[in-house]
Design goal:
By secondary structure, this protein is α/β, with parallel strands linked by helices. It has 29 helices and 15 strands.
């Protein structure tokens, strides 16, 4: 312990010097090598090229073209040009050799020819690199397709990026399996004409799909479309459920010529995106209500009202009884009451019993709000004064919503901002108009009329960590020490004398009365100026930027720190210094297979409903809380899972679900993704097993908690259970990498 403290007290430069001396040369080189290993390009920069009718060739071409231009300069132009770019060769006729007695123009010509040859050589030497870049982002299906070509063997032998790109373009530019020109054109036109926004698809995602379909349409050599026509095609495909009002108003505006037709796709997109208005949720949420303590008791008012109401009810009852008696003509003189023993009425109509119930109801009504008030401890104190709670004993109360102390325990007593009335079930009531600072905690209310020093547990928990040892103690954890409230006579009590003296930083007896007053003013300046540091507070006094400030000096400020110490608010408001660094993404451990097959099902746990989805072959588990099993809730949750996978360039292709009615309604709602609904009695074994594992882990953690899990935190515990399952290796993955790392490329940080 001594060595550790000694090391901490050394100057930072001395520590740095010792570390440099202890570091070996090979350690330094290894650290540099580690840093260089992760200076890779962002794996999200270029998407993996898919093969098939719904490929992403247009997006892939645009992304890889940017990367090629960035890394290989003029050579990268072959992606857009479809041929090698040849720089312009300097011509000797452009240089005036005749009128060049000093040979300046000739030297410039030779220098330009030298740069030209260097550029040609550089482009030729970097061809294999561009070849490797193109191959790197081809999916297994795409690579398999181009290998079927009889040209590939020669292309691969020569590492020719141009012919490789032409082969990729030839096999992926079409949007259908057929390679007949007429068929591919028809497929491109059909795809473009059927573009529609999905019911749960965002407008941004819809625009991306629309742009890809438009590029495929143009690439196939179809007739050129006007920009205005493209804008209206985009407008037509907007979801009618969300954009019905927008589409109606646009059509009416165009018909009446109140607005002009948007000139381009971007103009229509911006108009639709800005026009959309969010709908107001009609579902009622959950809220917490608080009991308000009245400044007075309405006993007489409530009693009078209750009597009046009771008399009215009795009169009605009597009238009803008399009516029934007249109708039934029952002789009540021989009826004996089992409650009072008298004749003439039944027990449920007994006047004595009704009077007794009325008195009990009035008593309950008079104390209903009273029992919900703050200091339940007063009821205990009135019955337990014999236990001897002293003037320095502080009781912590879990029912109190405000703290009240005797002035002898406080410092800096001042007028409160407003007057409050304290009520207790023991019948003790008083008003409080003063506050004071309870060292080492916070400012509390104070009154000489209080029967005990009450500390509100809720106020303490808002500022400090509190632990509870059942039937033993409450412990408030402070930076310097702990304050322990021991159980005494059924209450938890702490002797405040030991804590008050421990935190006294200096005695005011060494200063004069005038110095204490000025120190108090300086301390108030620290509070009202936003708790500055010592240096900032000195500048506030010396710079003269504050007018009307009392005459205080830097010495008064230092005396304020000596007497009152550093303001607790300043210490609690400071942030710890932490070095901010970006997470390291290792491209080599991200799963190469981007196509994912999903299985989704509904999970019920502790009264809450979740949509659970598993991914193959990634083995990642996703969860989303839903309010009910309606089609809308399941659609929104499933769309969120699809977008989450796409954010990392993974491609969901098919979703297997059970034959529930809500799932059957989602079959056509997700463009580009097949929703496969099983038959009657079919079960999804993989997702069922995953749900069972989530529930097992959920119950294990829940039963290990030292407190009862609130219903509102069920979704948090489910999210925790799923996150822990995703960091475990599964037997379905043939490598020692967990699903989360395969998905993000970032290893889990233990801290």
């Amino acid at each position: 312990m001594t060595d550790k403290n000694t090391t901490q007290e050394k100057h930072p430069k001395e520590q740095q010097g010792q570390q440099c001396q202890q570091r070996k040369p090979w350690q330094k080189n290894q650290q540099k090598q580690y840093r260089n290993d992760f200076k890779k390009k962002d794996p999200e920069e270029i998407p993996v090229l898919k093969y098939g009718p719904a490929n992403n060739f247009s997006k892939f071409k645009e992304a890889i073209s940017k990367s090629a231009l960035k890394n290989y300069g003029q050579l990268g132009k072959l992606i857009k040009l479809g041929k090698y770019y040849v720089p312009e060769e300097p011509l000797s006729t452009d240089y005036d050799f005749i009128n060049d007695p000093l040979g300046v123009n000739k030297a410039a010509y030779l220098e330009d020819m030298k740069e030209y040859r260097k550029e040609i050589m550089k482009m030729r030497n970097e061809r294999p690199k561009l070849y490797a870049l193109i191959l790197q982002y081809l999916s297994d299906e795409s690579l398999e397709e181009i290998k079927w070509s009889d040209k590939f063997e020669k292309i691969d032998e020569e590492t020719d990026p141009l012919n490789l790109w032409l082969l990729v373009e030839e096999t992926h530019k079409v949007t259908s399996i057929s390679k007949v020109e007429a068929v591919t054109k028809l497929a491109a036109r059909s795809t473009y004409a059927t573009m529609r926004q999905g019911p749960y698809e965002s407008i941004i995602t819809y625009k991306e799909r629309f742009t890809v379909a438009l590029k495929a349409y143009d690439d196939q050599g179809n007739p050129k479309l006007e920009d205005r026509d493209i804008a209206m095609d985009f407008f037509r495909g907007l979801d009618n459920a969300r954009y019905a009002t927008f589409k109606t108003e646009i059509m009416n505006g165009l018909t009446s010529k109140a607005i002009e037709q948007p000139d381009s796709l971007n103009a229509m997109y911006l108009l639709a995106n800005q026009w959309l208005k969010t709908t107001t949720k009609t579902n009622l949420g959950y809220a917490t209500t608080f009991t308000t303590t009245l400044d007075y008791q309405e006993k007489s008012h409530r009693r009078g009202k209750n009597k009046k109401d009771k008399n009215k009810r009795n009169n009605d009852d009597k009238k009803t009884t008399s009516d029934k008696s007249e109708k039934s003509k029952t002789d009540m003189s021989e009826i004996e009451c089992y409650a009072c023993g008298e004749n003439g009425h039944y027990a449920n109509k007994c006047p004595k019993r009704q009077n007794k119930e009325e008195e009990q109801e009035e008593e309950r009504s008079a104390h209903l709000t009273w029992n919900a008030n703050t200091f339940t401890t007063y009821q205990v104190l009135n019955a337990s004064h014999k236990n001897g709670f002293g003037p320095f004993d502080v009781l912590i109360d879990n029912q109190a919503n405000v703290s009240v102390m005797h002035p002898n325990l406080l410092r800096d007593v001042r007028d409160a901002d407003e007057k409050i009335n304290i009520n207790g079930v023991g019948g003790h009531q008083f008003s409080v108009t003063k506050t004071g600072f309870l060292d080492p905690l916070f400012r509390v209310y104070t009154s000489e009329d209080t029967h005990a020093n009450i500390l509100s547990l809720s106020e303490v928990e808002d500022k400090f960590l509190v632990t509870y040892v059942p039937q033993d103690s409450f412990i408030i954890h402070l930076p310097e020490t702990d304050i322990v409230f021991r159980r005494k006579a059924g209450m938890y009590v702490a002797d405040w004398r030991q804590y008050k003296h421990v935190y006294a930083t200096a005695s005011t007896a060494i200063y004069t009365k005038a110095e204490e007053v000025r120190a108090k003013i300086a301390y108030d300046l620290l509070r009202t100026s936003g708790y500055p540091s010592i240096g900032e507070a000195v500048h506030l006094i010396q710079d003269g930027n504050i007018t009307g400030m009392p005459t205080i000096t830097v010495d008064d400020l230092r005396r304020a720190y000596d007497i009152y110490g550093t303001p607790p608010e300043y210490v609690r408001g400071k942030m710890t210094k932490r070095k901010v660094s970006r997470a390291i993404v290792d491209q080599n451990i991200i799963m190469e297979e981007k196509r994912q097959v999903l299985s989704a099902d509904v999970m019920h746990i502790d009264g809450k409903i979740f949509l659970l989805t598993t991914c193959e072959p990634l083995q990642l588990t996703l969860q989303c809380p839903i309010n009910n099993e309606s089609q809308n809730q399941l659609g929104l949750a499933l769309q969120g899972h699809l977008d989450f996978l796409r954010s990392r360039n993974f491609i969901p292709t098919i979703v297997y679900t059970d034959p529930a009615k809500a799932f059957r309604g989602l079959v056509t709602f997700f463009p580009g993704v097949t929703i496969d609904v099983g038959g009657a009695g079919d079960h999804l074994a993989k997702v069922d097993a995953k749900i069972r594992r989530v529930k097992e882990l959920y119950r294990s953690v829940k039963h290990s908690l030292p407190w009862k899990l609130p219903s509102i935190m069920v979704k948090d515990l489910v999210a925790y259970a799923v996150s822990r399952i995703n960091i475990r290796r599964t037997t379905a993955i043939n490598q020692n990498v967990c699903p989360k790392v395969l998905f993000t490329g970032m290893k889990v940080n233990y801290k």
